[in-house]
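Regression report. Comparing outputs from two consecutive submissions.

Submission 1:
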Amino acid sequence: MLKLLKYDLRRKRERILVCIVITLLIEIAMWVSSSGMNKELLAINLSGYAGLAVAFLFITFSSYFRNLKSYQRRLLPVTPLQTVLSPVLLAFVLLLIVIAIGLVHAGLYQLMYPMDFLPDNIVYVSFRCLLQIMYSVFFLMTMTMFSITAALSLRFKRRVWAGVALLTVLQNVTANLEKLIFNINYVGIDNSFTFVLYENKLRPASGVTIRYLDSNQWPLLFEFAIACLLIYGMTVLVKRRIEV
């Protein structure tokens, strides 16, 4: 699987570098045009890195789409499970690159500006949010990749729209089931950014209130079970496609 990862990174490295350079230029422009460090600049910086992460996800999906259509890729001695999981690993590596760049950026801000407006436990909260985001990306990727795989297994011209319809159905059915059973929609997505910042005089000792799976772990296990079923379904479809 690592060989597949290296191959995909080498093939997509130019697009990856272009996305990184464009993001860094935008971040520098925002920093130069700002009057100083404040919440607004921080929000803009986070939006820029979120955009970079989304661009990387599109690169991952396009890579998976191309691999499924490529006849030469089907001749490689790799299992269907490796074909399915290598894009997920690629997405995690690219997201870790985004996080690393963001941490370097935050470190530079820490050296140049006072960060008194941030809560004392911002590191802990950020770590929790990043874990939730990584999980949400994994869950959404499994649904999107399953829709792509199912669409490519069809034999009619409008199969792209069939894949879009399938993705919409998967998202809505999963959300409604989770709402019906656990009274919550998409654990990771709904709560990835669910925290409250308090003013200095009003905030509790922790500085931040963050809510995520306080005591009920069943919604997370439910989503993970669905992701595993989708991965199994993809391996079956990929194997059938290779054998055709």
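Submission 2:
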Amino acid sequence: MIKKNLPLGVDDFKEARENDFYLVDKSMFIDELLEKKSKVTLLPRPRRFGKTLNMSMLKYFFDIENKESNKTLFNNLAITATDKMIYFGEYPVIYISLKDIKVDNWELCLNKLGLLLKSEATKHGLSLGEERAEQENALLTLSAALYKKYDKKVIILIDEYDTPLVTAYSQGYYNDAIFFFRNFLSAGLKGNPYLEFSVLTGILRIAKESIFSGLNNLTVSSLLDSDFNHFGLTEDEVVELLKYYELEYEVEDVKKWYNGYKFGKSCVYNPWSIINFASKNELNSYWVNTSDNSLIKELLNKNDSKVFEELELIFKGDTIWEAISENIIFDDLNNINTIWSLMLFSGYLTYEEARVSSITGLKSYSLKIPNAEIKSFFRQSFIEVYTKGDVHFYGTMMEDLFLGNLNSFTSKFKKMYLSAISYHDSADSEKYYHHFMLGLLLTLGDKYTITSNRESGYGRYDIALEPKDKRNYGLIFEFKTSDKDSIEEKAREALAQINEKKYDVSMKNNGVLKIIKIGMAFSGKDVAIESQVD
């Protein structure tokens, strides 16, 4: 039997239906939207979880201008068996997607938005001026014109509303952008007499001086909520897809790689990764390579001790408890706690449960890495941060360590460190270097159980890597800081401390027969290394 094509890169509902691509039926999203029918609904979800496809489905369902040609698009979908079909093709629809407004300055951003709004007006046989004031009021102006044309209120759909704002923050023109978009959205969504209802999607709920200021008709449903869970793929939907493409034998591996996201009470898979896996029949990182991940990497690059200590836990499969704010304030990104909210809503972490403190009343969530694909992202990010992007060099250096080629490892590490340390403020604190090393070594979590500051023998080692395959080398690290003149002596002291305090006892008791002991001493951009193999 000839299989349907997979909708790789296809996010337009009409294109997917007319070309008979494999499509999971999410049409009951329309039913829930009409049941609740808030004036303005904001649905933040991670990227590539089907937001654009669902939004274009709404456009074709409600669109009054192409009612007859759109009707066949919904043949055999669940929505046709409901009473909501009375709303089919009954409204003029304004649909704009801001996902491609990613430019490096405010003037280009404004120009690109102007072209987008002008194009939308032209589709309706309308015209729109190019002045800034006309652009700020574009949603209201188009609503009034369409209401006059059809004598019906308008549905406004805005996909990826926050993309230009996230880009503006990373490119340094955030204040200009936030001021404009607050006025732009307010004009179209607040007190617009021609508005039937509006739906917005994005990744984050941006809160600085609230972009939705005064919008008292706004309903928000984030991935922490149990409604509007029509994004992502359920396990049943994934099993059906894999069976259709005769890949059902891969279910457990696929689950390990792409499952683990929790939206409300539902556990979902990443649809972008599933589609790519089904197309290539290869387990790989697909989703994390579709964006520059700049905000996440910026926060990781801060090398904050609390972040690294908690990332150490989640790399081992544990969970951490953190307070989560649904309102992301970009001015707070220097507050490292913001990283957990950003990672959760962007899809880099997931949560298992929530609890409310009986003392403070504050709500916190248990966070973890959802799957192997995201774990590979963190591994890659650490490598890029600490090796100046030389992934191959890092790989050969770690192979030397794994195989016990200590002279080669030492030579490569010194070369890498001299380059990488320029990306951080070197310090005289042993804790700083401890976290620098931990960031490098966390990437080895597939082959080792990594622990830090644990008791063994007569003291606490700095970092230990116990091999999951006991035939391989175990690794024990001890770190010292020093002035430049005594750095070699301090490295010898660090190695001697491992032996004197018998830090290898726990590992030997667990059946590890070969252990590499490494003493390191740091002084600014200089490092000395002493090692031995037992």
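Expected: both submissions complete independently.
Actual: both completed, but the second showed a warning that disappeared on reload.
Relevant detail on submission 2: The first helix runs from residue 13 to 18.
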